[in-house]
Amino acid sequence: DRVKEVVGYCVDNDMYVVLNSHWDTGWLEDNIFDASKESAIVAEQKAIWTQIAKAFKDFDAHLIFAGCNEPGMNETSGGVKSWEKTPSAVSRLVKYEQTFIDAVRATGGNNAQRCLVFQGLGTDISNTSDFMTNLPTDEASDRLIAEIHYYEPYQWALMEEDAGWGKVFWYWGKENHKDGSAHNATWGEESWVESQFAKMKKRFVDNGIPVIVGEFSSRVQTAATRDDKTEEFDEELHKKSRAYFNEVVTRVAKNNGCAPFYWETGS
Fold first, then answer.
1. Is residue 119 predicted with pLDDT exceeding 90?
2. How large is the greatest C-alpha to C-alpha distance in the chain, in angstroms?
3. What average pLDDT does the segment 231-246 reach?
4. What pLDDT score does 54 carry?
5. Which of 54, 108, 117, 242 could form a disulfide with 66 if both were Cys (CB 3.0 to 4.6 A apart)?
6. Distance CA 146, CA 140 (A)
7. Tens of pLDDT, residues 183-229
8. 3-state secondary structure of 166
9. Is 267 a residue whose pLDDT tops 70?
């Protein structure tokens, strides 16, 4: 009831809402590779989305449903598991997303034509474009949207402190490197963004499937939070780098037919 109230505020103000099962303890998100849980997850996915769809079926096209969030992301981080080596996990995720789509459509009303979002593998561009060879299907025409998230490179967007295998990137972009710094980005800059989003255009947009970048941002580094005490931290250059990163990702995503959503949690 509370979620319906908030969705109503948004729609009444001509805003669009993407409603998803965002984390929810990871009952689906963190068990994509576990075949023993497949039947239970299918049952729960169907039950949850049947209930949600019935409760929200009177909302118009300003409301969009997304069936997952970052399915399999935690399982594949750091190379613990691989989509490439476990094609059954890819099929399992598609099955869970198909369950979501079928459950929503079965409730009728505005849900018969509502736009629905399915996530790529771990919402990662490379894994999605390389290994998600089969996609969920829909009885409604032109109502599916693909979603990925963009936190690349990890050393720039998410890494909190230096590790034995690499440094945190404080500075990003060809004009934002600091002379002599060990914390300049060494990969994942402008040309990487271009090549990554070109994959989404080729795989989805050019085939009539819209793409949303459901989250993108980069971690704020400050003199107080940085771990490296061996060199001076240039906070202004870091801020400039972050602003430039946001601009590049936004521009390149849109140029490739993808709609970017900046991820801000108050930090």
1. yes
2. 62
3. 96
4. 98
5. 117
6. 15
7. 999 999 999 999 999 999 999 999 999 999 999 999 999 888 887 88
8. strand
9. no
The answer to whether residues 176 and 241 touch, using CB atoms and an 8 Å cutoff, is yes
Look up 70 and say whether it is catalytic. Answer: yes
Query: Long-range contacts made by residues 36-43, C-beta under 8 angstroms, separation at least 24?
Result: 38/92, 38/95, 41/96, 42/95, 42/96, 42/99
Q: Is the N-terminal amide bond of 153 cis, ω within 30° of 0?
A: yes
CA dihedral defined by 201, 207, 210, 213, rounded to 10 degrees?
Answer: -30
* CB-based contacts of 189, cutoff 8 Å, min separation 6: 172, 173, 174
Per-residue DSSP letter, 256:
T
Q: What b/e sequence results for 20-51 when a residue is b if at least 16 CB atoms lie within 10 Å of its CB, and e otherwise?
A: bbeeeeeebbbbbbeeeebeebbebbbebbbe
Query: From residue 199, how far is each of 70, 236, 252 by CA, in Å?
Result: 19, 33, 12
pLDDT of residue 21: 84
Higher pLDDT, 266 or 67: 67
The two tokens of residue 206 are 């050019």
78 Rama sector, left if φ>0, alpha if ψ -120 to 50, beta otherwise? left
Spell out the SS3 assignment of 106-141: HCCHHHHCCCEEEECHHHCHHHHHHHCCCCCCCCCC
| Cα gap 68→49, rounded to integer Å | 11
User: Which listed residue (75, 147, 189, 215) is catalytic?
Assistant: 215
CA distance 252 to 196: 9
Rounded to 5°, angle at Cα 8 from 5 and 116: 105
Q: Which residues contact 199 (CB under 8 A, 6 or more apart)?
A: 125, 126, 129
CA distance 19 to 31: 21
Length of the chain: 267
Tokens of 83: 């989509």
